[in-house]
Amino acid sequence: MKGRVEVYCGQGKGKTSSALGHCIKAAGQGKQVIIVQFLKGKDTEEISFIRRLEPEIQLFSFEKYDQHYMDLTPEQKKEQEHFIGNGLCYTKKVIDTRQCDVLVLDEVLGLLDLGLLTEKELVALIAGRDEELEVIMTGRSLPDSLKDWADDIYCISTIKES
Q: pTM of the prediction?
């Protein structure tokens, strides 16, 4: 079966949670899942929960600081960008060595927004995958030029928040 590319984007909350639900379903079907998380900071509730799902679902976060990237000082951002580069290299290795059936690139679209990854580089990652690998990407906005690379795009928006 050909692997699909799914995108969860939008201004609303729940993109990562939606991707995680997909991961739990895949793991329940005996698939190996790897999540590579960017820009989230080291300490989120989701991370501690996902750790309990290992080894079926493995999480790799290349964060040095607890805070989100946007809350870092310029010096910390520069250091964090090195870790983000390591995360992207790891992602390429996962794809090249076919380490999983489902790969989630959590907040990878945010790297595009910040100029830490180019659309061309992201396309190269996706295009280099085995045709059976399923890829899920999350982030606030999906550039129009990447829409053709996705099989399914889900826009998550908040209707009401109290």
A: 0.91
